[in-house]
Amino acid sequence: MEVESRYVAVRHHVEGLPSEDDFEVKAARVRWWPESGEVLVRNLYLSVDPYQLNRMKRRSASHLAVDGIVPGERIDAYGAGEVVASACEEYKEGDVVTGVLGWEDYTLFRPSPGVLMSKLAASDDLPLSHHLSALGTSGMTAYAGLYEVGRPEAGEKVFVSAASGSVGSLVGQFAKLAGCYVVGCAGTNAKVDLLKNKLGFDDAFNYKDEPDMKSALKRYFPDGIDIYFDNVGGETLEAALANMNTYGRVALCGVISEYTDAGHRAVPDLLEVIYKRITIRGFFAWDFLTRFAEFTGVISDWIRQGKVQVIEDISDGLESVPSAFTALFSGDNIGKKMVKLA
Amino acid sequence: MEVESRYVAVRHHVEGLPSEDDFEVKAARVRWWPESGEVLVRNLYLSVDPYQLNRMKRRSASHLAVDGIVPGERIDAYGAGEVVASACEEYKEGDVVTGVLGWEDYTLFRPSPGVLMSKLAASDDLPLSHHLSALGTSGMTAYAGLYEVGRPEAGEKVFVSAASGSVGSLVGQFAKLAGCYVVGCAGTNAKVDLLKNKLGFDDAFNYKDEPDMKSALKRYFPDGIDIYFDNVGGETLEAALANMNTYGRVALCGVISEYTDAGHRAVPDLLEVIYKRITIRGFFAWDFLTRFAEFTGVISDWIRQGKVQVIEDISDGLESVPSAFTALFSGDNIGKKMVKLA
């Protein structure tokens, strides 16, 4: 079987703020045959994630953990799709899978323990898109980062940056369910409104209105911060450390302010880190892979019970991948950004 | 009973590199009487520690954890002394105690759960000075920092900065006992020689001979660093992070390069911290106070078995406290710096 497929590639390594011109949609033919041992998937939803930008750089610490992206070549990405042909018993035509697919119409994969792919239960009652957001890597990142890295106790004070984003919007809700006091920051008043009035944050503010982040955090956290879930790095991290309590924890999830500008870096006051005995820990959702089923089980129940709102921002068509991706860095999107294929 | 006592004070807050002129020796009379409930101790050994410099600043994150030092007033400090008069049953004349005393000839204390003071067993067979070094806060810091924060596994690679200092010299030896590969850096060739030829470090180097610390660490750790025991901060921390392995741990004990120059700060690459899932944790020996007896028991056995060498640098007389203290910042001393009173 051979299908016409298109894929999104970068034209060249991307070093600063990405623009749509950095991308191109290329045509390809994908060939599957019964003896290949492979599974052919027609992609239905594709995830766009800020960390992909690091993979597009010529050199980046990210290449230690995930392969760099090669200009002109296909780009793997988390997604959901439907099996259209299978050369192995575990997968049948019509099965819906989620896992590492690609920014393309069709993806071929060969099942192996190293390949992250799972088959949806026929009984699954939640929208498929949720498997890219609250039940996908965003949900896992929020869950593992808050509970395993942050380790909240009821009554603790939690600060979340990029709080209306795919991960932050879930972290804040999860922290409320843990009995914490939660404040988030975001970059527009509409986002702040969402956090306060729909997602149940105790408070939220627009960081663009706060020229002095240290004083802002002092106002929002008169009793200090116990856990900072960091998605942005830079001055926000410095300010959070300055307002942190003894034994505070920083779950270092992303430093988006440093992705687009390598010269922009946080200069933490290490005396604060020592004297307040702060722990700063970088983490990946994938370090907790063996516990995905446990985590998604809990999150699914919360969604069904109405305890967690899932915010998604869905673009249409493979050709919208470049604009969806670049929007992540202009502050335009709210919640989990993804692309739905026709 | 009233005794003539002298104490060392700072003349004013100390903001940069300390000099002997910042200090003065002042006369006082200390009065004890049977109804006071207090214990009068004649001090025998006094500890001088770099962190005291932060306490001498007008403003410092250290004041969150330990009281700031007031110009002209006595300065509390770890030490060992002999009880000369006691108004409580637990302590008798002639008992030898170790704990928080002061830079002074005589110290009065009132026993309470909040006062760190312990009585030496009559059977104690190790030199009293060791209770300020390997069996005092230096030993506790090294033990807790390496084992509880660093959590070494046999075969892991450990880097220690300020490796010939009071804490570093023990960390390296403890890490060897844990089956690790250990490299230390120090600031003179004599110190490097000590590390390699007396303390059993696998390798050591003079950081002053290495203009590019990142490349130096790449040479000394071709397989990367798993644990960095940081006593200095600054560029050394940046270089260690750049050479660290996945799941690496930084035990942040001190940032001596930043104590004397608040403008001098490490600018860690947080992308390294995320993608290598590094944990950076500030700690105090005192956070592990409840386990001091356990730790000192282990270290005492190691000393008796000749497995750990205790390096001490002892000055004589209370009037040598200022020069002993300032020497900590000029790189002159080797091992645990302390002052023996007449």
TrEMBL record, chains A, B:
List the protein's name.
Enoyl reductase (ER) domain-containing protein
One Pfam family of this chain: ADH_N_2
Cite the PANTHER family for this sequence.
OS06G0602900 PROTEIN, PROSTAGLANDIN REDUCTASE
* Entry-linked Gene3D superfamilies: Medium-chain alcohol dehydrogenases, catalytic domain, NAD(P)-binding Rossmann-like Domain
Keywords per UniProt: Oxidoreductase
Q: Which organism is it from?
A: Oryza barthii
> CDD domains this protein is in?
double_bond_reductase_like
Keyword check for Oxidoreductase, yes or no: yes
Domain Enoyl reductase (ER) spans what residues? 16-339
Q: Does the keyword Oxidoreductase apply?
A: yes
Describe the subunit structure: Homodimer.
Signal sequence region: none
Molecular function as annotated in GO: oxidoreductase activity, acting on the CH-CH group of donors, NAD or NADP as acceptor
